[in-house]
Amino acid sequence: MQERGRFISVEGIDGAGKSTHLAWLAQFLIARSICLRQTREPGGTVLGEKLRELLLNDAMHLETEALLMFAARNEHLQQVILPSLAQGEWVLCDRFSDATYAYQCGGRGLSIEKFTQLEQWVQGRSEGFIEPDLTLIFDVPLDVSQARMANSRVLDRFEREQAQFHANVRAAYLARAAQNPQRIKVIDANRSIEAIQQELAQLMTEWLS
């Protein structure tokens, strides 16, 4: 029987430098001869990418937003994540359901009950609940993320939200991490890239052993 692959997600508020660290992490794993599938949410499939365009650009009710996030996630799980894991590939995903908890519950005010119902519906399986084996949250103070976004590319509608929205998202991420300390590791991303990569290398080496 093919050994199941591992599932890693990378999270963080906008401006935390997540994309930079995700690229480094991918190279770290590939250098260790790990067969890696990189993907993202929302997105990762043809349908998911179409939904991503809507979600990042079109205004909508918060419950519609949450439903579309989970619709994209269901397609992602069925078409990409679960088949890859079953084939022994490792999946490295730019955001997963922790992002929905942070942005839609923390940022938008979606009820935790509705989030949990959607999470159980989409991620619940007869073989067990599907979630990442490891989640890395890159965390920076709000003023740092705001300054980075001010010098960034054209912003999407989440990135254009007011500072309080992003403060709420960050608080939700940290609360989620406190609830799941075995799975979720918070990385202080308000340091030099070298210092962050050194911590990541040590963390991943221990996790892989």
From TrEMBL:
Taxonomic superkingdom: Bacteria
Positions contributing to ATP binding: G12, I13, D14, G15, A16, G17, K18, S19
GO cellular component terms, semicolon-separated: cytosol
Top-level class of the enzyme under EC nomenclature: transferase
Alphabetically ordered keywords of this record: ATP-binding, Kinase, Nucleotide biosynthesis, Nucleotide-binding, Transferase
Enzyme Commission designation: 2.7.4.9
Gene3D superfamilies tied to this protein: P-loop containing nucleotide triphosphate hydrolases
Catalysed reaction, written as an equation: dTMP + ATP = dTDP + ADP
An MF annotation (GO) of this entry: ATP binding
Biological process according to GO: dTDP biosynthetic process; dTTP biosynthetic process; dUDP biosynthetic process
Thymidylate kinase-like domain segment(s): 10-199
Family membership: Belongs to the thymidylate kinase family.
Described function: Phosphorylation of dTMP to form dTDP in both de novo and salvage pathways of dTTP synthesis.
Name of this protein: Thymidylate kinase
Encoding gene, per UniProt annotation: tmk
